[in-house]
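Structure tokens please, single chain.
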Amino acid sequence: MENRSDTHNSDPNSVGPPSALTYLDPHYWDERFSSEEHYEWFKDYSHFQHLIKSNIKTSSSVLELGCGNSQLCEELYKDKIVDITCIDLCSVAVEKMLDRLLSKGYKEIKVVQADMLDLPFNSESFDVVIEKGTMDVLFVDAGDPWNPRPETVSKVMATLDGVHRVLKPDGIFISITFGQPHFRRPLFKDPKYSWSMEYNTFGDGFHYFFYILRKGKRCNDEKENEKCKDPSISLYQDELEGEDYLFRTRFDDDED
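Here you go.
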């Protein structure tokens, strides 16, 4: 899965599903990707391009989790990052992405049908793993965000285990998300992972989070906490576009 594009479905009046829980249904994505050409979650590339350029070298091998029909891989390619592998669980999304990339001449970008909970790649294969809104789907039925359901935690940890495994010793994991540091830190900072955690924010009235986890760079938690002061939890939705509000609404409901 990957903010609103100008080409959301063939119907300009189309809206998202009635509940974020719908995102857990594979048939929903099959049907959606069959007709939808492009959709961006959590702002388009221009809003965080400066963060990409300061953290990803053009020589890096990159794995994108849950490409959907996003243009993220194309934007990376335009910025001279060409060694890219995209995965998605939905076969329809994979087929359409392959067709789109080939039609634009982006033959070097690889697209594979795969589950991010069980990555089919060798250990230490990539310099960078990136996801944009994909892991947020795992949290739609998490319940209390301060104490998510064990089933949710299990899926998130399976994803993080795989990411940590396929990253090279000095690789980085970039997660672009709604997820506040209050809720992501206990997962990202599990003692079994060797990565450090830092983050930036982008957006105007509402903050989206750009996490950077650097493998092999874990340091004293106290020093790291000094670098990353958590912002207050924002409940404003003025800046949310397209279906982003569904994730935000779900979060707010759990807070009540």
